[in-house]
Amino acid sequence: MAGDGGPAAGEGGERVAIVGAGLAGCLLAVLLGRRGVPVTVYERRPDPRVSGAERGRSINLAVSARGLAALEQVGLRERSLKQALPMHGRMVHPVSGAPNFQPYGSDRGRAINSISRAELNRSLLDTADATPGVTLRFSQRVTGVDTAAGTLLLEDADDEPADVVLAGDGAYSAVRGSLGLDVDADFLEHGYKELTVPPKDGEFALDPDALHIWPRGTSMMIALPNLDRSFTCTLFWPKDDFDALGTPEEVAAYFERHYPDVAGLMPDLADDYEHNPVGSLVTVRAWPWTRRGDGAAVALLGDAAHAIVPFFGQGANCAFEDCIEIDRCLTETGGDWAGALSLYQERRKASTDAIAEMALDNFIEMRDRVASPVYRAKQAATHALERCLAGRYVSRYELVSFSTMPYAEIPARIRRQNRILAAAAAGAAAVLALTVRALTVRTRRRRP
Ligand SMILES: Cc1cc2nc3c(=O)[nH]c(=O)nc-3n(C[C@H](O)[C@H](O)[C@H](O)COP(=O)(O)OP(=O)(O)OC[C@H]3O[C@@H](n4cnc5c(N)ncnc54)[C@H](O)[C@@H]3O)c2cc1C
Predict the structure, then answer these.
(1) In terms of Cα–Cα distance, which of 210, 207, 205, 232 is closest to 221?
(2) Exposed site from 27, 55, 58, 161, fewest CB < 10 Å?
(3) Mutate to test the pocket of ligand 1, among 45, 90, 104, 169 (most ligand atoms within 8 A of CB)
C-alpha cells in the first residue's frame, strides 16, 4: 500500500527515490537536485552527523583522481582535500631491517589522499541537505522494490510510491536482493580488522606522507594517516587466523614477532584486537543493473552493483564515477530515465569488471610482491620509462589512480605497451648480438 509520503514528482512527473545515503547515494542526490529533479533519499541508519561511527569501522579511504574529479563537479574537491592527507608512496615494512619508500609516480609529485569515509560522507550529506529538491530520510530501512506496483517497500512504515529507484544501498543491497537479478558474490577467505596507532608525543608515530604496508606473504597490514595524527591500521588476514590469537599476551607476542617496528606504537592493541569486528571482503558481480516493471524502473549503483575488494583503493572512486555517468546519460537522453539507465549500465559494466579484477590482483602485489628486491627494481625501471617516454609509457597504477581513463581500457593499453617494449628489447638485443659478432670476426681477421 502506498503511504502518504514518498518522493515528490519532478517536472517529468517521476517520483525519484535513492536508497542509501552513503557515498554514492549522497553524490547522486546532489547531482539530481542540481538538475532540478526532486529526490528523496532513504537511509537505514540514523543521521551519522548526529549519531557518530561504529567501533572498528572507521575506514579511511584513499581518494584519487576519479573521486576528486567527481567531487569537483559538486564543489567538494577542495573541502575534501582539506580533510585529507596526501600519501606520495608506499612505505614497505619488512619483518627486519629498515622500511623502504616506493613513490607512486615517476616524479614524486603524485599522491593519493587519505580521508575518513565518515568525514567524506558527512560533507556529502551536508551538501545534499543544502541542495534544493533533496529530502533526506534517516532510520528508514528499505526492504525492496515492487516494480509492478511502483512502490518502495519499507521495514517499519507503509510502502511508498516511486517511479524511479536508484539503489546505492551497498554491497549487501536489499533492493538488489528483492529484484531476483543474476548476482555472484565472491567472498575472499581473508577478512579485515582495524587497529590504531595513536599520536606519539603529539606527533605522527609513522611517516604521514605514505600508505604503510607490512607485507607478510599470504596476509598483510596497512596503515593510513588521519588528520588527528593517528593512523588507522587494517589487518587483512585469512579469517580463521583471527581466532588463533586468544589472550592479550598471545596478541602482543604475535605482533612483536611479525610486526616488530609497529607493535610498540599500539598501546591499545589487545583491546582493539579483542573488540573490533572482523569485516568481510566481497566482489559482487551483478547483471543486469536495471529492472523495469510497469510501475517503476530500478538501477543499482556503487557497491550495490559492483562491490570490489579494497586493494586498489578504488571502490568509492568507482562508485562516484557511476553517479557522474548517470548524470551524463540523463543529459544525453534529455531526461528520459529508461534510456539513461540502460545507457549507464552498458557504459559502466566493462569498466567495473576490469577494476574488480585489478583490485584482486593488487592484493597479491601488496601482500607479497612489494617486498621483493626484483619488484623494486622493476618499479624503478617503470618510473624511468615513464620519464623517458612521457605520455607513451604509463604504468597501470598511474592509469588507475591518476587518470580518468575508463578502467576497461587499461588492461589492453598495458598489454600494448608491454608488447612494444618487448619488441624494442628484442630489437635491441638483436642489434647488440650482430655488433658483438661483427667485432669478433674483425678481431679474428686482424690476428696473424
Ligand atoms: C576496509 C575497506 C577499505 C576501503 N578502502 C577504500 C579506498 O581506499 N578507496 C576507495 O575508493 N574505496 C575504498 N573502500 C570501498 C568503499 O568504502 C566503498 O566502495 C564505498 O563506500 C561504496 O559506496 P556506496 O555508496 O556504494 O556504498 P556504502 O558506502 O556502503 O553506502 C551504502 C549506504 O546504504 C545504506 N543502506 C544499506 N542498506 C540499506 C537499506 N536496506 N535501506 C536503506 N539504506 C541502506 C547504508 O547504511 C549506507 O549508508 C574500502 C572498503 C573497505 C571495506
Answers:
(1) 232
(2) 55
(3) 169
